[in-house]
Amino acid sequence: MIEVENLIFSYQKQKQTLHGLTFSVSDGEIFGFLGPNGSGKSTTQKILTGILHGYDGSVHLFGEPLQNQQKNFQEKIGVLFEFPYLYTNLSALDNLNYFASFYPAKRRRDVNELLSMLEFKKDFMNKPVSSYSKGMRQRVSMARALLNSPELLFLDEPTSGLDPQGAVLFRNIIEEERKKGTTVFLTTHNMMDADLLCDRVAFIADGKIKAIDTPKKLKEKNSNHQVEIEALYQGKRSMTVIETPELKAGIPFPYDEIISIHSKEPTLEDMFIQYTGRGLT
């Protein structure tokens, strides 16, 4: 679906933003492009969506060079920008009906059904976007990204501005789109989104890719193979860390009740810091 080789881009002469990125995204994959603000992830997405030009290297989408894509290229992709791009004097319905007019009828999804799926408040559908909260604007922007039944979906910080319930809803919707065969390119610094959604992730920092793998393998490769056991014995709580192989013979200490057992494997954010030497904020 996406093939990128030695991608180089500069906003200013002699000051590169992207330093030779190489990666690929398979059909039907949710691919996470993870990095802090200023790392180059949004720049990469803008190149892949045809917004930024003047890059060096090779970029192929749908099996064709990006520069050779026909007019229907925009009909096959959906984009959710980090900062919602909506006409604030228009309502959610007016915005979506306007954007839907750019696509052929066979690709358009029902605007009301999309807003209902995104749990948009019905009493705000005809009110101007200027009166919406950030989370409400994010819902309309996601509806806009899905309007044309995209084969390739670009999402930039999709759960930004959402409460926990809204974030869960968005993650479920993204999973449903993938089940339909949609490929998803997800740029984010939200490690929870990446860990729960992505088949593979790429860590990017300072315009360079530092690692690419599945979240599970990245964590397993760097696991210390320990578990933390909280237990109750003779009325007293204790916390014990043991090596995982020790569990084969059973829990090696006396207890009356096991309260919890937790793996000590690193988090995805721990791995990002290890590979890049910096945090996500």
Automatic annotation (TrEMBL):
Enzyme class, broadest EC rank: hydrolase
Gene3D superfamilies in UniProt: P-loop containing nucleotide triphosphate hydrolases
Domain of life: Bacteria
Molecular-function annotations in GO: ATP binding; ATP hydrolysis activity
Keywords, ordered alphabetically: ATP-binding, Hydrolase, Nucleotide-binding
Leader sequence residues: none
EC number: 3.6.3.-
Record protein name field: Fluoroquinolones export ATP-binding protein
